[in-house]
């Protein structure tokens, strides 16, 4: 691919990505063409000395690809783009001008590790960041996943729920939603063990649902019995092993979630 053609495709990508709303379908087509061009030019994984402008454009293309992946909810694609960006963020960090997209993407990667329950990788990645420990709190893109991890470990799920509205970039909400899906299933398992039934309103509060329709859809997925006339949900017992779970402790924990949520609201 000729340099002029590569630059024309890159400018088309910028227009499509920066449009309001972004033309995600067009971006996907252009990214595939541009990655082939970068491979042919030896810029997808650059080695040795390269033209500075070519490196900046290559990094920009891959960063747009990372954001495009999240906007299209393609996590494996995000993983690939993030892996390809590591060469630019590490090997060429002293050569290239800083990128305003670097830390938003690094933060997204940290939240991705949380959603996959890769806590050890999360801390290893956090420690490898080119940031002083005292500077993390000043960087919203990094402090956000750091806070999420702490709240998850504390069981402060209401704080994770409210963190969605405090996300430093729109793409972060995708991963927070994924975290909430995991949290809801954990709480639901506790409810199934601790209760025979619950009022619909209490179940919605405990599971952080704001509409009854979302709760009913979730209940159907879990195989719960819903009585709309009585406004209750009944939980199916799945086996004798559930009798070994400390019922009172689970009830107390669930009520604590509800009280904490009420205080915030």
Automatic annotation (TrEMBL):
UniProt xrefs under PROSITE patterns: PCI
Protein source organism: Collybia nuda
Keywords, sorted A to Z: Proteasome
GO biological process: proteasome-mediated ubiquitin-dependent protein catabolic process
Record GO cellular component, one term: proteasome regulatory particle, lid subcomplex
Domain of life: Eukaryota
UniProt-listed Pfam families: CSN8_PSD8_EIF3K (PF10075)
Domain PCI, first and last residues per copy: 76-252
Name of the protein: SAC3/GANP/Nin1/mts3/eIF-3 p25 family-domain-containing protein
Family: Belongs to the proteasome subunit S14 family.
